[in-house]
Amino acid sequence: MTGSWDEDGPPHPLALHRTGRSEQEPDRLPEVRELEALGWEPAPEELAWVFLPYVWPPADRTWIPDRSTHWAVDTRLDGDGHVTGVEATPLAEAELHDLDRETEELLDALGLPHRPPGRLWLLRPVGPYPAVGAVLDHLRSVARERGVAFRASPELLSLTRAELATLTGSGPP
Predict the structure, then answer these.
(1) Are strands 61-65 and 41-42 parallel, antiparallel or unpaired?
(2) What whole-number distance in Å separates Cα of residue 102 and Cα of residue 91?
(3) For the chain, what is the total number of helices (H) and then of strands (E)?
(4) Model confidence over 74-119: pLDDT tens digits?
(5) How far is residue 157 from each of residues 40, 60, 109, 113, measured CA to CA in Å?
(6) How far apart are CA 72 and CA 88, in angstroms?
(7) Could you give the CA distance from residue 149 to residue 104 in angstroms, rounded to a whole number?
(8) Fewer CB within 10 A of the terminal residue: the chain, N end or C end?
(9) In 3D, which of 118, 71, 74, 68 has the Cα closest to residue 90?
């Protein structure tokens, strides 16, 4: 199993009938909810898994255009720590790029290409696991057993590739 970001692949067909920016956060988009009902789950956002959609089996990953809005929330407190006001404003494009910078730096350190912009990744569980979280728990457990630190690293990348290949029957047992 090598990997790819499906650079030329189309989004999931369910997303094709939705266009335009939404004020919803990524996990609240209607198309994400619809795909969740079909067994898809949003890819984890933990930086340790920055590479996960790249190495996840192609038949069990998909993406949709990111129509969501990312919000900056400013909370004002009084001298006693009580909330006196909350203001939410959409992040500007420059701020969104700054958020992606850390992801890009980690992918560079792993020798992987950058993610195509504007995509939300969704995964389906593989192997005997009923949920993506259970697959991730398994991968964390194997990493712990083998002394691999849980952080985006060549070691975690290699271990994840090998375990996913085993779970899908495309690699050595």
Answers:
(1) unpaired
(2) 17
(3) 5, 5
(4) 788 888 888 888 877 766 777 666 667 888 999 999 999 999 988 8
(5) 22, 18, 11, 14
(6) 6
(7) 20
(8) C
(9) 71
